[in-house]
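Tutorial, part two.
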Amino acid sequence: MTAPVRLATRGSELARWQAAWVASRIAGGATLVIVSTAGDQRADVPLSAIGGQGVFVKEVQEAVLSGAADAAVHSAKDLPAVTPPGLCLAAVGEREDPRDALVGAPLAAIPEGGVVATGSARRRALLASRRPDLSFAELRGNIATRLEKAAAFDAVVMACAALRRLGLGDRIAEALDPSWFVPQVGQGAIAVECRADDAATRERLAALDDPATRRAVTAERLFLATLGGGCTLPVGAFATGGASGPLVLTAVLARAESGPVFRHTASGDDPVALGASVASALLAAADA
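Running the prediction step on this input gives:
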């Protein structure tokens, strides 16, 4: 009898939902291994102060590397651009709505000088580029906590995918057009890692992989890797396309939250080459 796959995951409601979604698609079943991460333990501190990207995944990855779990389930947007030695990205599930959402009020209804809460430098930079009159407040916590805090501000920014997965899509006041409000790398996708030498688990996870989403997320992650895997600047990237043929990648880069936002769009068949070329073009524009 095949043993269940042990899936490491954070303990938030959204993380458990995502892990259960993965578990329901694994032949032979799965069990959850709940892991507390630095990002969970220090929810009162801005992400930039505790390491930025990676603070929600390191301990989950370590559970797999140590043998305490067979695979790790992540929001793809939380993953650093470079996979740690010993692990592989075994599956990328079909993408949910990749857009960012305003909760509380649509952008046009936020009053002059209004306050928008978000802990994301990307979200602040993009909003400031469209509405320089706005001011910003820090926002951390799980989905329920952030929704509870929403009434204290004119609006808060959250991911559409997170709200929809938890049945909270009715809280979306406006889903922001990704052609200008470019999402975070990997936003809306679920990523599953396992040990690179664990062929049996890789085979069982392969059924979850959505080729079109994997190609898009690969282009976005290569964009981020080319910038520097630990990049903490306001950046976003969003690729569209099918399981084969051309991909279109749009990306943004700002040197600061209040500075100009540089944009670039390109297309190509090779997601790796496309991601690298768009990053190089944006770096050249920002340095000009």
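The mean pLDDT is 92. In part three we will examine how such features are distributed along the chain.
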